[in-house]
Amino acid sequence: MRPPTKARPTVPPQGAAGVLIAVGILSALLAICGLIGWLLSSLTAQIAPTAPPYMILVWILAALLVLTPLTSRLFPWISNWLYLFPALVFILAFTVLPVVLTVNYAFTNYSGANSGNPDSASRTTATLSADRRVVTLPEVGADQPLSEFLKCAAPSCAGATLVLYDEDASVPYRQLVDSVRGNTVTLRTAVPAAVQVAAATRLNRYEYVGLQNFQEIFSKASRALLPVFIWTIVFAFSTIIINAVAGLILGILLYNKRLKGRNIYRTLLFLPWAIPAVISVQMWVALFNQQFGIVNKTLGLLGFVAVPWLNDPLWAKISILLVNLWLGFPYMMTATISALSTINDDLYEAASIDGASRWQQIVNITLPLLRTSFTPILLSGFAFNFNNFGIIYLLTAGGPAQEGRESTAQSTDILLSWGYNTAFVSSGGQNFSLASAIALIIFFLTLAISLVNFKAAGVFEEARK
């Protein structure tokens, strides 16, 4: 008689260990389905070269539909945790994958010129031999060796990739190279009979370069990293101090219960925060126009010369601080009013009985009691403005240009806009690998700032209790 099989547990593991086990099982299921989808999509691409790229998603979904019930049979309790599936998918797709790619690209030469894609600018005519293994490039070989044209790592070009096109040049066909001679390329395998070769080009490969990107960043530190980093610190620190002082003053004034119409004033002063920054910053660009802006027009009526608000490095920085004050003081004002509502009015009544003036009450009661509430706000505000890309991009786009600086790191660029310019605005030669290295540097700087913030806010002390 067969012994009865042991029933699988239906009660999920408890505590933090249970959560980790469930997340681990679901992550493993996603990884297996992703691997199956990748293998099947690669096989599909070989069988049907015109198959759309999204076939990998179709295969992954099919694998999930098959393997999820099997996983539920192996672990009956996992059904209670399937609600984590969408969260895991979004975390992997929008957090883990970008981080992994960024770290990977930081150690490569990935750029617009080394993108891993066929080089359309170097496309040339090609003919195919009868055995469909030898490709002749009649326009290559006289002035430029074929190995140089293909950017081969070795003179024989063995293992390199040649990209073939038909008359329509709509679908690239990648073939591995066995050897080159003169202007002919011998392929490792014959070209499929369905392909009518009419043109060929090279593959712009990217490769690992180790710490070369970081060496380039630090070798040009005086022209990019140091001035940009210093301005980033000054910008974040000045912004949070100016906004906090303005918000604190306005908050204390508008909290006065004897002030008539204070709700109207609050509403009007809250409007800059309610209006989207994309709209209000463009308004400020028009106001600060050196020739036609209303600010300089008004200054001219008062007898002052036109100020180059956005055309001079120093004035551009002042303009950024002023516009960021316009955008940020309503938040600080609202935070001040909310914090003031937590202070007991009896303290002020007692101070008034003792003869304390309004200023003495603010200095000795209001400010000390606001310190606890404002410390995390100030620290988080500093971290936010440290990476405040929007105001820089919308108001000055990093400019104006400054002599002795890299073209991607101009007078008002912060670290984040410097990385953006390097990746997307570098005159068509987008250096994604260098931008990824900059992103890693920003990550470690932000991590250090966050640790200081946690230390100053007493988070670590609270966690130990």
How would you portray this structure in words?
The protein is α+β, with helices and mostly antiparallel strands and 465 residues long. The protein has 3 domains: 15-105, no CATH class; 120-202, Thrombin, subunit H (Beta Barrel), CATH 2.40.10; 215-464, MetI-like (MetI-like fold, Orthogonal Bundle). The protein contains 16 helices and 7 strands. It has helices spanning 15-47, 55-74, 84-105, 146-149, 212-219, 225-254, 262-274, 277-287, 294-301, 313-340, 345-353, 358-386, 389-395, 415-424, 432-457, 459-464, and strands spanning 124-125, 127-128, 134-136, 161-165, 173-181, 184-187, 199-202. The longest helix has 33 residues, at 15-47. It is extended. The mean pLDDT is 86.
Question: How is this structure best summarized?
Answer:
57% of the residues lie in helices and 6% in strands.
